[in-house]
UniProtKB/TrEMBL annotation:
Name the UniProt record assigns to this protein: Agmatinase
Residues reported in the UniProt entry to bind Mn(2+): 125, 150, 152, 154, 243, 245
Record-linked InterPro entries: Agmatinase-rel, Ureohydrolase, Ureohydrolase_dom_sf, Ureohydrolase_Mn_BS
GO biological process, one term: putrescine biosynthetic process from arginine, via agmatine
Family affiliation: Belongs to the arginase family. Agmatinase subfamily.
Provenance organism: Geodermatophilus obscurus
Name of a matching Pfam family: Arginase
Family matches, as PROSITE patterns: ARGINASE_1, ARGINASE_2
An example molecular function term from Gene Ontology annotations: metal ion binding
């Protein structure tokens, strides 16, 4: 039903982790994380190419694809301390958004129902509707909050005559009842979209958007801390949606709608680390990587590391919960940081 291997290019898994088949539950029984590819750009308003995103995110890493990545900072191996498997690409024809998104939603829901965290490699941002709704279908509508990194609010109503596209998934999620508007945290917005009528709608939903102007004024850390408080209020889990265009085009040129003046790669990675260390993340997607517009693999390499940072931090969060330890970024790395499980630090 869902897995056709790779829809485009060679059939590889994320950094060499084991593959699974969503039609065979035994292949992902007990998995902590299931990677899904969503090779779709049928929701793109301007420059396409994100159908090639999943393969680029899986592959773009100069190290051996051996299913192991010990984190220098976190002292975990996100690919080994967690059971991570890759289900391949969901079949998504970019010419038919009406069948592509439901197919993805069903696949994500299946992963969430198995107790694993879906990590979806996009694909344009229209897929976030399927990703977050698929998780909320299992954990309960209204019980999952959203932390959404993006240059754009993605709350448009009708674009190019359609309800479905990469500028609208967040409105559709709220309208559907799957997610609460007042538990919707947006980070990194800037530029010249959306228009005032859309901003009015967002305010009516009580969405909270941290624009780059506010981040510059208050500092990213303060904004994140505030957002975390909202995200965990009356919600059981957090969905993390990362549009790579939240980063400045100098840090992420390979994307369809670049907007100058964004986060640095370092700020994004640190934010993803904090979110996955401090919050109960129940789903992740990384979207809008468009390899035809990339240069020197800058964007694909960053997206690969966004996924890895999330997995490393989730592994660390679980280890700390198990062992009663706490990761402290202020400790010197090699000399003084205690390592509670030396066998996994090789
Ligand atoms: Mn977006």
């Amino acid at each position: 039903m869902t897995r056709y291997g790779a829809q485009y290019g060679p059939d590889i898994t994320y950094l060499g982790v084991d593959r699974c088949d969503l039609d065979e539950p035994a292949t992902y029984d007990g998995a902590d994380v299931v990677v899904l590819g969503a090779p779709f750009d049928g929701g793109t308003s301007h420059r396409p190419g994100t159908r090639f995103g999943p393969q680029a995110i899986r592959a773009t890493d100069y190290l051996p694809h051996d299913g192991s990545r010990p984190s220098l900072a976190l002292r975990t191996d996100g690919l080994r301390d967690l059971r991570v498997v890759d289900a391949g690409d969901v079949e998504m024809y970019s010419g038919d958004i009406g069948t592509a998104l439901p197919a993805l939603e069903a696949a994500v829901e299946r992963v969430a129902r198995a107790g694993a965290i879906p990590v979806v490699l996009g694909g344009d941002h229209s897929i976030a509707f399927a990703d977050a709704k698929g998780v909320a279908n299992v954990l309960g509508h209204g019980r999952v909050s959203m932390i959404h990194f993006d240059a754009h609010a993605d709350t448009g109503d009708i674009e190019f005559g359609s309800l479905w596209g990469h500028g609208q998934p967040m409105r559709r999620l709220i309208e559907s009842g799957a997610l609460r508007g007042d538990r919707f945290l947006q980070i990194g917005l800037r530029g010249y979209w959306p228009p005032p009528a859309t901003l009015d709608w967002m305010a009516q939903q009580r969405m909270r958007s941290y624009e780059m102007t506010e981040i510059g004024s208050r500092g990213l850390e303060a904004c994140l801390t505030e957002a975390f408080g909202i995200a965990t209020d009356e919600c059981d889990g957090v969905f993390l949606s990362v549009d790579i265009d939240v980063c400045d085009p100098g840090h992420a040129p390979g994307t369809g709608t670049p907007e100058p003046g964004g986060l640095t790669a370092r700020q994004l990675l640190d934010s993803v680390r904090r979110i996955c260390l401090e919050l109960p993340v129940v789903g992740v997607d990384v979207v809008e990587v468009s390899p035809p517009y990339d240069h020197a693999d800058i964007t694909a390499a960053l997206a690969n590391r966004v996924v890895l940072e999330a997995l490393s931090a989730i592994a660390r969060r679980r280890r700390d919960a198990r062992d009663g330890t706490r990761w402290d970024p202020a400790l010197p790395l090699l000399a003084d940081r205690p390592d509670p499980t030396p066998e996994s630090s090789a």
